[in-house]
Amino acid sequence: MRPTPSRLLNILVPVKRAVDYAVKIRVNSSQTGVDLNVKHSMNPFDEIAVEEAVRLREKHKSDIKSIKAFTIGPPKSVETLRTALAMGADSAVHVELPESAPSPEPLSVAKAIRSYIGKQESEGGVDVVILGKQSIDDDLGQTGQMLAGLLGWGQATYASKVELDLGKKEALVTREIDGGHEEVRVKLPMVVTTDLRLNEPRYASLPNIMKAKKKPVEKLKPEDLGVDFTPIIETLKVSEPPKRVGGGKVESVDELVEKLKEHGFTAV
Amino acid sequence: MRPRPVCFARPLFARAYASPSSPHALLFLDHRKGVIDPGSLSALTAASQLGGQVTGLVVGANDHVSSVLEKAKSLKGLTSLLHSTSDIYAEPLPETISPLLEKILSGSEYTHVVSTPSSLAKSILPRVAAKLDVPAVSEITSLEHDSASNSTTFTRPIYAGNAIATVRLPSTVPVKFFTVRGTSFDAAPSEDGKDIPVQAVDPVEVSSPTQHVSTKIAKSDRPELSVASRVVSGGRPLKNAETFAAILYPLADALGAAVGASRAAVDAGYADNSLQVGQTGKAVAPELYIALGISGAIQHLAGMKDSKLIVADPDAPIFQVADIGLVGDLFEVVPQMVEKLKQ
What we know:
Chain A: Heterodimer of an alpha and a beta subunit. The structure holds two protein chains of two kinds. By secondary structure, chain A is α/β, with parallel strands linked by helices. Helix content of chain A is 27%, strand content 29%. Chain A has one domain (9-262): Rossmann fold (3-Layer(aba) Sandwich), CATH 3.40.50. Chain A has helices at residues 44-60, 77-87, 106-119, 143-151, 206-212, 222-225, 253-262, and strands at residues 9-14, 17-19, 40-42, 64-73, 91-96, 128-132, 154-165, 170-177, 180-187, 190-194, 217-220, 234-239, 248-250. In chain A, the strands form two sheets. Chain A has a nine-stranded mixed β-sheet with strand order 9-8-7-10-6-1-4-5-11, sandwiched between helices. Chain A is globular and about 70 Å long. The mean pLDDT of chain A is 94. Chain B is an alpha/beta fold. In chain B, 30% of the residues lie in helices and 26% in strands. Chain B is globular and about 60 Å long. Chains A and B meet through helix 3, helix 4, strand 7, strand 8 and strand 9 of A and helix 5, helix 6, strand 7, strand 9 and strand 10 of B. Strand 13 (248-250) of chain A pairs parallel with strand 18 (324-326) of chain B, so a sheet runs across the interface.
């Protein structure tokens, strides 16, 4: 039996191009930011988000109508979208910012996503937005919650397991919380943010990378979404963290315990 | 020179506009079932440094709220308390608590909203900030409020702690949201015989799209990781959950330390997720941090390099931040340490 159209889900996955997690970053000499002339890749939490969207389709097959990747950033951000497409997203949207534009803040990103979702109403809307829980560059961890707030949707942050119940139009989500985890039942449409434990993202195969080159990428300008990406938070300075002085090596457990005791660390 | 003539020409306007309004922070006092999250005490210290009033907000079920209020009343730096009690808050959800915060903040005199970066507060605060159309600043490590310009300047780590950003929320942001890294501020102490006004706020009934189903908290008698003064952390070489426990726990117990873990150890299932130390886990800054079988990836260092004394393997990258290093087979070294510490 063919599912009724109302049960077909559209998933939106906002992704961010960030400095690769393995790069040792350097603060620039003018202390205005970090040297960005280094390897970039998709924010690791966003890879998990794309993977989850693709797995949901593998599980629910044709009930998932579309998986769309979305990014806001300079021209090179399109590479990040291609990665998402190679992992299994169907199409992508690139809100292009000038090369020199400052990184947009979570609030404006959330507004842009809300605006885009509004434009999708005629295409069947968006039912699930899956985002990373934080980007590893600004480490703010706010966009998903802000988006859910702006839309008035349910939110499941720090998800480690997502089970969709398409009949009931809801999801059972396990969330990582301080000291353990909790389960929540969220009505669709909803916003999910991914924790590391949600899944292990796949590597895109060469054929899929080739196919991704033919998948559609829609280009938008900030004006198309009516969002001003000028930062509100003023960055006054970016500096190196204080350096630790190198320590000393001890040769034996006796010596180590002696040192610990010298510093006042004894058994309780 | 420029603004002066204008000020003199319209002294009343200038006065009304430029007279510094005293900061008034709303502190979201996070608690679990009536026990205050220790990070909230550090957040209170940070909020006090704004130089104005600090109102604590306690939300929850009746019993829980009353036990939090009892403790909170005497906290140094709090000038008043608000509480909202309802069964709908017994299992806190952003969808149910956010409307309450919006109500409290709308048209109010609050200039700042402060909290510890607990998983609950991190889920709620950005949601509320967006509804108020203001940005938020996460995990600040220092702050300075300028009443004259009504701007607040913060420092916060970015790029996994490999850079420190100094950022300012300008006067155009009427309510300034921020979370406070607990390891950078002392916990606010209690003061005897303190009496502050306590006021109830009606709960906001909303039809939440989200329902709580169940909660599982990993039980432990050891100190809470993020506030422990000593931490013993283990990595992948600990082989499995059994050896992780068998090796680490006796040392942690001998030192009265909390147990932490690297991402590798958590991913391999040796330890609960909530024990992960690092950029995406907990940030710790204990007096003593002992890293066992942890190489020291950037992401792990992000969570522990502010510790006072670090003990680690000198052959691993983590030794770049360590004070004392010992090379050895941890399966032999650690039991010896336990024995010798106890002597």
